[in-house]
Design goal:
29% of the residues lie in helices and 38% in strands. With 153 residues, the protein is an alpha+beta fold. α1 packs across α2. Bound molecules: coenzyme A. Pfam families: Acetyltransf_1 (PF00583).
């Protein structure tokens, strides 16, 4: 589990480490410039997991009116299955609750079983499918939502 490390907000100084994890985690990684822009974007909320003075994982979302759109979450391959992804997602959900968001949404590759399992373990539900959304390799996107407020009340 994650007792040794801390979750904190991402700064520009973290971007080199975040970008390394991004490249190790995705077939079509975001550019370093994109993360530098995110670090200065007032709508973007990013957390990192730091242990032994090193960043091992990150998660981010855009706060759009009363919704949270999760942009990415990744953990260094050497540190997976130790609860870090769970702790990072928990930080995004806590932020969303504290800021009165109605819910969180995201898109995930339909073949990405680790990520889908992680989201489902927090109560995210499948809400739609975008056919052929991804390339390299081709895949559909599953749209998921976690509602934090009862929309009927
Ligand atoms: C998805 C990811 C962030 C999970 O991070 P992690 O630190 O390994 O996850 P955790 O250890 O916190 O696991 C939390 C839960 O996720 C699920 N999970 C994680 N890895 C899994 C795997 N390989 N297979 C099945 N379920 C998995 C499980 O439900 C797990 O709970 P459990 O350990 O009690 O069974 C990580 O696999 C990753 O970085 N993947 C590459 C990037 C990516 O695909 N990001 C998602 C983009 S939408």
């Amino acid at each position: 589990m994650t007792q040794k490390g801390i979750i904190r907000g991402m700064t520009k100084e973290d971007v080199d480490s975040v970008y390394e994890i991004e490249k190790l985690s995705f077939s079509v990684p975001w550019s370093k410039e994109s993360f530098l822009e995110e670090a200065e974007n007032s709508y973007a909320i990013y957390f990192v997991y730091e242990e032994d003075s090193k960043v091992w994982g990150f998660a981010g979302m855009h706060h759009i009116v009363d919704e949270g759109h999760i942009t990415n979450i990744a953990v260094h391959p050497e540190k997976r299955r130790q609860g870090i992804g769970k702790a990072l997602l928990c930080a995004l959900i806590s932020y969303a609750k504290e800021n009165g968001l109605i819910g969180l949404t995201l898109e995930v590759r339909s073949k990405n079983i680790p990520a889908i399992s992680l989201y489902k373990s927090f109560g995210f539900k499948e809400a739609g499918l975008r056919k052929n959304y991804y390339t390299n390799p081709p895949d559909d996107a599953i749209i998921m939502w976690l509602y934090l407020k009862n929309l009927k009340t």
